[in-house]
Design brief:
Strand content: 5-15%
Number of helices: 13
Strand order of the largest sheet: 1-10-7-4-2-3
Number of domains: 2
Low-confidence stretches: none
CATH superfamily of the largest domain: Dehydroquinate synthase-like - alpha domain
Shape: globular
CATH topology of the largest domain: Dehydroquinate synthase-like, alpha domain
Radius of gyration: 20 Å
Order of helices and strands: EHEHHEHEHEEEEEEHHHHHHHH
Largest sheet: 6 strands, parallel
Length: 389
């Protein structure tokens, strides 16, 4: 008999399919925000009217704007933004952008509540993960300023209470977590995503596929996350090719957004991921591979490795992706190829001399130690990297 406890996360609303200006007008009024600190994609700010529309919508409630968050959320950018938000006495953070901006808002929130004013101060809040998987998370003062997030990609980090932040001095991406880092509200407007570069939108869609697949094949799945993950895969496997075929298809874009949302439901209830996520974190922080690309190059190989431990559930993956008669690894690889995305480490700039360092670093990621088929050490990671290279 299945037993468990389902936790409802501290998020109040997900608004979907409603145009951004309309949704934002209502939400800012509902929250009675008076000093909104806006964190936005630099590209959106420079090349589109989206951020100007947001500024006009906020009017005199806009207290400050940051458009300087680099990929993988560097500490230096995060702390600079936090110091600005502190100076303007922000009472709400609004993000419009991809995963790096989303994580930056979470980091700004904990910087504000924990008196972080220099990049080095974050050392006392970061998680420490030993090579055997033992994790220590120091106490963090609860954020008192929350966020409203408008994602433009499909990584789905806006639905979690964790953030990755890169120490650029050591080239390491580190993990931070607190339940109240999660946004109060997420607004899913497919029209905003039309400005996202095709490669970024589609590859983060594969990141969402990775979330759903590794939750389904997890060592501790839940009935709720199973249902959400299966439907996420159905939406993503139809929506992503439809967007590739017709970038103006807003219905397909919304299907992708809804699929990304559903793909992350396991993370909200402690369903653990596997080696595709674990290696992917290190590929991002150490080798500077974009989030979505890490899943493109690793997920099929991790599925093949894990097949002896997850055969039944991998069949579920194949069914949800529309090809029940084919191995899940092949189905995922075919989807990646259909979208014109890279499938090899060499295609995303990873050099052979980096592989040993990536293998060693991966052993310090928590998801390596919850992979459904045991990973004994760096040699196993190196085998996966060699297969993917």
């Amino acid at each position: 008999m299945v037993q468990g406890i389902h936790h409802t996360p501290p998020m109040e609303r997900v608004i979907y399919g409603i145009p951004l200006v309309e949704a934002l007008t209502q939400e800012i009024a509902r929250l009675n925000a008076r000093a909104v600190y806006l964190m936005a994609s630099g590209t959106l700010s420079r090349e589109t009217q989206v951020i100007d529309d947001v500024r006009r919508t906020l009017g005199n409630r806009l207290a400050g704007t940051c458009t300087r968050i680099a990929s993988h959320t560097p500490r230096t950018d995060v702390v600079a933004a936090a110091n600005e938000a502190r100076a303007v006495r922000a009472d709400l953070i609004l993000t419009v952008g991809g995963g790096s901006v989303t994580d930056a808002a979470k980091m700004v929130a904990i910087c504000l509540s924990n008196d972080i004013t220099e990049p080095g101060d974050l050392d006392r809040l970061k998680a420490t993960i030993a090579a055997d998987g033992k994790t220590h998370r120091p106490p963090i003062q609860a954020p008192t300023i929350r966020s409203v997030d408008v994602p433009t990609t499909l990584s789905a980090g806006e639905f979690t209470a964790m953030a990755g932040c890169t120490d650029t001095a050591r080239n390491v991406k580190e993990s931070y977590a607190h339940p109240l880092m999660m946004p109060l509200t997420v607004i899913l407007d497919p029209a905003v995503t039309t400005h996202t570069p095709e490669w970024l939108f589609l590859s983060t869609g594969i990141r969402a596929v990775d979330h759903a697949v590794e939750d389904l094949c997890s060592i501790n799945p839940t009935p709720f996350s199973d249902g959400m993950s299966l439907h996420a895969l159905r939406l993503l496997s139809s929506g992503l090719p439809a967007v590739k075929h017709d970038p103006a298809n807003l219905s397909a874009r919304l299907d992708c957004q809804l699929g990304a949302w559903m793909s992350i439901m396991g993370s909200q209830n402690g369903v653990t991921k596997g080696a595709s996520h674990g290696i992917g974190h290190v590929l991002g922080g150490t080798a500077h591979v974009p989030h979505g690309y890490t899943s493109c190059v690793m997920l099929p190989h991790v599925l093949r490795y894990n097949l002896p431990a997850t055969a039944e559930r991998q069949h579920w993956v194949s069914e949800a992706l529309g090809h029940p008669d084919q191995p899940a690894a092949d189905v995922v690889a075919a989807l990646i190829a259909e979208l014109g995305l890279p499938g090899r480490l060499r295609d995303v700039g990873v050099q052979p001399e980096m592989l040993d360092r990536i293998a060693e670093g991966s052993m310090h990621d928590r998801w390596i130690h919850t992979n459904p088929r045991r990973i004994e050490g760096p040699a196993t990671i190196r085998m996966l990297l060699d297969a993917a290279w």
